[in-house]
Fold YcnI family protein.
Amino acid sequence: MNVSRIALAGGVAASTVLLLAGTASAHVSVQPQGEAAKGGYATVNFKVPNERDNASTTKVEVNFPTDHPLASVMPQAVPGWDIEVTKSKLAKPLEMHGQKINEAVSKVTWTATGDKDERGIRPGDFQQFPLSIGQLPEDADQLVFKAIQTYDNKEVVRWIEEQKKGAEEPESPAPVLALTAPAAGEHGAAADAKGTGSGAQADKQTTAASDASASDTTARVLGIVGIVIGIAGVAFGVLAGRRRTA
């Protein structure tokens, strides 16, 4: 009886955990393909799940942060969706590749096309919306994007709540892109690639010498083994001849 109760309790607990995990993860999120390094460029995917059983998502708006504006935003085509990139003037121009940028992307909107019954993100599905973005800020650890999801029944869900430190996850959290440490400078990498006697070239020479030494050692071992086998064969032949003579 006790065993049955424990098993039942365990099953209920496991189901509850799975249910809560599914609920917590079913929101608009953003993830980089690889890393999103500070000061560099990245390709990111906005993942939009459909949380409704009787409606399809037909419009997705992603608003870009104003405290860290991004001058370069290029969307990748998504079949079945029209894309609109909205730019706004900056209060403080950005400097990018030696040029001043007076405007930056403030919003990207995806609108579903096609037949009403088949368009958009249908119940039980999700869609990813890829973007190439940059130049990422060097003085921030993350970027917060505020997203708005619209269903074909006119319902609008605003994923705009920012996570507060030490607090529980909000009901409608905004997508957050975590930034990693800056990538190594290209000059250092180029110097290593060219080599200066103690760099890559020296390593290549050392590797080549090691390979040559290993090959020479292998040849010597094989030669000795061949000699031993030959001597053993001669000795065997002599003994066999003596036995036949006897």
